[in-house]
């Protein structure tokens, strides 16, 4: 137990270092705990695919490595309230907070030494969320298709497609992934293929992106002399084009890519609001560790024993997650501006922390 035996300034300095030594191991333990929980969730969702496609250990570990930045980011943030609440709960249980207060130490001053570590965590979260996590998500998506499913990455849905190649001209009203388990095959609607020996048309067809062919589902052929023939077979044509992919999803786009996407979108669309929210969230989330120091730290200083601290950890994280997961939907439907929605969880918990800190003054 820490003993107070000097004046207030010395008590504050020594006790602050003592609290940091108490919080540090709990923070590392919290990172490991949340990492284990998220890994369990990740494996439960992917082990079925691994077994079905006979994925080797090396491929499974490669996939895991692409998800590590995303998993680690959440661990770094969630471990902050976990460590603070448990540390202050232990200090309250052993009456060390009361001993420090009796020596003239104001409880709220114990939070100031936590700000620098929180800033360092926030900086790591900013870089990770803006660059490493999107890159890892994109690699994860591609690797799942090419190395686990052994199929090409699905062709993006495209309207009014046209392409010329080796004297042939290909058009389709719509190209879309079939989504029915067919490997490397996209569906074609409203297909026309013009060749030197005639023009072929069909209501539908298939694009095999691995074999690089278009196959028409029957249809008609119009010869150069105007003769129309009903096709009783399914003609196949070599087609080597690759459809340009649309901008990657927000979770696969780095922060500079999101800014570029936002500049080309209409502000009245849901796509714009979702992109703007994701961009604003990447600026708000790095400040969450600071907010947690204030809110969870002040809450921990009010608690009277370790049992209350354990319960507070659960309630604290559940409440924050409820706000954090609801905010994107509020931004998407236009109920809140993307900027307000992104900062809403931090704002509410910062206000909660300031209220508790005022009580501790």
UniProtKB/TrEMBL annotation:
<dbReference type="GO" id="GO:0043190">
    <property type="term" value="C:ATP-binding cassette (ABC) transporter complex"/>
</dbReference>
<dbReference type="Pfam" id="PF03739">
    <property type="entry name" value="LptF_LptG"/>
</dbReference>
<feature type="transmembrane region" description="Helical">
    <location>
        <begin position="18"/>
        <end position="37"/>
    </location>
</feature>
<dbReference type="GO" id="GO:0015920">
    <property type="term" value="P:lipopolysaccharide transport"/>
</dbReference>
<feature type="transmembrane region" description="Helical">
    <location>
        <begin position="43"/>
        <end position="64"/>
    </location>
</feature>
<dbReference type="InterPro" id="IPR005495">
    <property type="entry name" value="LptG/LptF_permease"/>
</dbReference>
<feature type="transmembrane region" description="Helical">
    <location>
        <begin position="291"/>
        <end position="324"/>
    </location>
</feature>
<keyword id="KW-0812">Transmembrane</keyword>
<keyword id="KW-0472">Membrane</keyword>
<keyword id="KW-1003">Cell membrane</keyword>
<keyword id="KW-1133">Transmembrane helix</keyword>
<feature type="transmembrane region" description="Helical">
    <location>
        <begin position="111"/>
        <end position="132"/>
    </location>
</feature>
<feature type="transmembrane region" description="Helical">
    <location>
        <begin position="330"/>
        <end position="358"/>
    </location>
</feature>
<protein>
    <submittedName>
        <fullName>Permease</fullName>
    </submittedName>
</protein>
<feature type="transmembrane region" description="Helical">
    <location>
        <begin position="71"/>
        <end position="91"/>
    </location>
</feature>
């Amino acid at each position: 137990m820490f003993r107070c035996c000097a004046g207030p300034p010395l008590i504050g300095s020594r006790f602050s270092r003592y609290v940091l030594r108490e919080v540090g191991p709990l923070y590392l333990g919290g990172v490991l705990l949340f990492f284990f929980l998220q890994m369990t969730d990740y494996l439960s969702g992917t082990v079925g695919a691994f077994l079905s496609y006979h994925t080797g250990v090396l491929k499974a570990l490669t996939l895991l490595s692409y998800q590590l930045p995303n998993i680690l980011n959440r661990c770094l943030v969630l471990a902050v309230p976990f460590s603070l609440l448990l540390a202050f709960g232990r200090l309250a249980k052993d009456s060390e907070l009361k001993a420090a207060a009796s020596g003239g130490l104001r409880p709220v001053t114990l939070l100031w030494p936590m700000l620098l570590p929180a800033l360092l965590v926030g900086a790591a979260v900013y870089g990770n969320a803006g660059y490493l996590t999107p890159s890892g998500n994109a690699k994860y998506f591609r690797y799942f298709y090419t190395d686990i499913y052994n199929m090409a990455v699905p062709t993006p849905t495209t309207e009014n497609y046209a392409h010329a190649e080796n004297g042939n001209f290909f058009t389709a009203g719509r190209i879309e992934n079939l989504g029915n388990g067919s490997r490397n095959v996209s569906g074609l609607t409203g297909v026309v293929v013009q060749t030197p020996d005639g023009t072929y048309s069909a209501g539908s067809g298939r694009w095999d992106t691995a074999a690089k062919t278009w196959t028409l589902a029957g249809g008609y052929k119009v010869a150069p002399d105007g003769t129309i023939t009903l096709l009783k077979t399914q003609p196949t044509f070599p087609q080597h084009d690759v459809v340009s992919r649309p901008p990657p999803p927000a979770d696969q786009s780095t922060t500079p890519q999101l800014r570029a996407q936002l500049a080309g979108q209409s502000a009245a669309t849901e796509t714009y609001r979702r992109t703007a929210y994701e961009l604003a969230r990447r600026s708000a989330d790095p400040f969450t560790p600071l907010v947690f120091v204030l809110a969870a730290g002040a809450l921990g200083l009010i608690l009277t024993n370790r049992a209350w601290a354990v319960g507070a950890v659960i309630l604290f994280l559940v409440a924050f997650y409820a706000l954090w997961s609801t905010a994107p939907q509020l931004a998407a439907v236009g109920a809140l501006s993307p900027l307000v929605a992104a900062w809403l969880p931090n704002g509410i918990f910062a206000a909660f922390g300031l209220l508790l800190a005022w009580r501790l003054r």
